[in-house]
Write a structure and sequence with these properties.
Blueprint lengths: L11 E6 L17 H16 L4 E4 L9 H10 L7 E3 L7 H8 L6 E2 L3 E4 L2 E5 L14 H13 L4 E5 L20 H9 L4 E6 L6 E5 L2 E5 L6 E2 L8 E2 L4 E7 L5 E7 L15
Parallel strand pairs: 1-2, 2-3, 3-4, 6-7, 7-8, 8-10
Antiparallel strand pairs: 1-13, 5-6, 9-10, 11-12, 13-14
The protein binds fe (ii) ion (2 copies).
């Protein structure tokens, strides 16, 4: 548990960056895109548009090559963050290398998975199955979620993970979401104060309400996937990020913002990534 603010009524301000896909080498590219440069543009835009948030969320696929050095490059890229950065793993991450690379003296990255801030708790879940593309919430994760929800009923909750727990309407993507998504949603649907559910992985914007909570997915800071297609495809949309304001009365206001150009070098005809 971490970060606590006074009992004032201002919203908790969050910036989410997802699927940054960093490499160890400066020449590393994903489908023609220099992922670190693309992230830097998105990060700069976010700081210009939104200022310094109360906290940052990195919702997985921070690395593409699973190296400790790729994570250190991320630490360098956000050295002026000015607020704590929280993270969870995606299918392209490796837990051990991620922790070793992101954490340490002078790094803004923190390990907390239950963040208490203002009138809110933000719960970070690990849906990674190492070696697999799809994800799963193991029983330990579901127990952790239930424990957080139960012990802090007076706080509104936002739950974050990498993989999508609901169908996105794209055949190839829907095979690589959370494999026990319905079990997970059953826990969430029974939570009294859940107001937001946030993920990455799908490299596209998604905003939909489900009962009392808002479900949100966010574009990657590098390449975007075509929506609602049977097979993998690249969408020529610019990279982006999401800002979220978590109100003291439980309201959630959020918007996806994008740069004005498609990531430089993008290869549109790729058959996979
Ligand atoms: Fe990704
Ligand atoms: Fe992913």
């Amino acid at each position: 548990m971490a970060l606590s603010m006074g009992s004032n009524n201002r919203p908790v301000r969050v910036l989410q960056f997802t699927d940054t896909h960093f490499f160890r080498d400066e020449s590393g590219k994903l489908l023609g895109v220099d992922t670190a440069s693309s992230f830097k543009e998105v990060y700069k835009l976010a700081r210009e548009q939104f200022g310094t948030p109360d906290l940052y969320l990195f919702t997985g696929d921070i690395s593409q090559d699973e190296t400790e050095e790729s994570y250190r490059r991320m630490v360098n890229a956000v050295s002026d963050a000015g607020a704590p950065c929280y993270f969870l793993p995606g299918n392209h991450d490796r837990r051990h290398e991620m922790r070793r690379g992101l954490l340490g003296d002078g790094s803004p990255f923190k390990t907390d998975r239950q963040i208490i801030v203002g009138k809110w708790q933000i719960i970070l879940l690990d849906s990674l199955i190492e070696g697999a593309v799809g994800g799963r919430l193991e029983s330990g994760e579901l127990e952790f979620l239930q424990k957080c929800l139960k012990e802090r009923p007076e706080f509104y909750s936002m739950v974050c993970l990498h993989h999508h727990p609901v169908e996105m309407g794209a055949r190839w993507l829907d095979q690589i979401g959370v494999e026990n998504g319905s079990e997970f949603l059953n826990v969430l649907d029974n939570a009294s104060n859940l107001r937001a559910l946030l993920w990455g992985h799908v490299h596209q914007q998604f905003d939909q309400r489900r009962g009392a909570y808002k479900m949100m997915a966010t574009p990657s800071t590098c390449i975007q996937f075509k929506k609602k297609t049977d097979d993998f495809g690249i969408d020529p949309l610019p990279p982006g990020y999401r800002w979220i304001e978590l109100g003291a009365d439980g309201t959630v206001v959020s918007e996806v913002m994008r740069t004005d150009k498609v990531a430089r070098g993008l290869e549109l005809s790729s058959a996979g990534y």
